[in-house]
């Protein structure tokens, strides 16, 4: 930091403050973690200075031998860790990984057959009406994914994201009584909509998914099954999710981020069956520019860590801690979406405390508990204020928290929410944003949090 400080002290100061903030609070954001020192250090090197467009051994720049090495090592670890036939480790993020996957599926299923029919090898050989006709077909495909309020992600076909602009989109929700995925409903929606791509995966669904069933549905309607395991990749890597709960053997294409439960650098990976490999490997230049050598190197280090037996112990603890936390909340009167969890995340309906998600998020933050508000199924407060708080256990499990610690965290959370009430707007009406907390409660809770972190 002293080195950075000589150039731009504000950046050095913010970086130091971020370390203090992350260490001094209960980090319960389900998509965050603490990467190891080897992973962090690998990101801060001159591997960042090299351009290497193309793929391993086939670059559009000279002198890419060291980037070839780190990209190969990362891909080798990803394949071994997840038992995947192929791994592409260049995507800079989860969104990029999904974009590569979408276009690789379009290239494999729409573009390649069209070129083959015309006896052509390359889209550049298409001219005039043939090119316009292919463009029209690429832009006229259907995608079915989980709805946002049931826990799906923006990249699964929602209009604010490019996935909702490039595909005709429909979504499947969850059962209104149980909050669980209803596979018969997914199958019925797939039969009617006939998507080219069926997306499974989530950001805020607290349960496991049966990927064998999802694949059966995809096969029945001729869809490509794309699983986005960004959130639960660590549980797959750590062998907590096995059999039908492991998406990799069932999905044609699997995408993930590397920085959530997998505990690596920020980034994405695409795993795929051999038929999709040629198109996936063209992620650059299809939708990506030059790969980030320093981040691919850090992915290799994180994936090597995830192949150690200790990562399986960690992943099991993440799931056990989520159970303990969920039980702790419910025992103290908390109402959970789906009535519990069997993965790494918990979705609490805070309307039973008379609060919006926004009020609960702010009150918890004042007390040193960092979470994010999240819509719940059929949320009356919409996506901005929401009625839910999403919690996740990966980060604090990395810090060594066990089930007793998580029970205490549940107690702190319920104390804060029980001691918080709705504030008023300027004209005296109940507000969805402002809140009032009992005197001294935030400080008392922050002290409790600090004790746990000691
Ligand atoms: N896919 C899922 C399921 C996610 O939860 C997220 C991020 O929250 C993403 C993709 C996007 O990842 P990134 O923020 O790295 O683009």
Automatic annotation (TrEMBL):
Q: What pathway, per the record? A: One-carbon metabolism; tetrahydrofolate interconversion; Amino-acid biosynthesis; glycine biosynthesis; glycine from L-serine: step 1/1
What catalytic reaction does the record list? Answer: (6R)-5,10-methylene-5,6,7,8-tetrahydrofolate + glycine + H2O = (6S)-5,6,7,8-tetrahydrofolate + L-serine
Its Enzyme Commission number(s) read 2.1.2.1
Tell me where in this chain the Serine hydroxymethyltransferase-like domain is found.
5-108, 141-412
Q: Which cofactor does it need?
A: pyridoxal 5'-phosphate
List where in the cell it is found.
Answer: Cytoplasm
- What UniProt keywords apply to this chain's record, in alphabetical order? Amino-acid biosynthesis, Cytoplasm, Methyltransferase, One-carbon metabolism, Pyridoxal phosphate, Transferase
Primary location recorded for the protein, binned into one broad class: cytoplasm
Oligomer status and interactors: Homodimer.
User: Mind telling me what this protein is named?
Assistant: Serine hydroxymethyltransferase
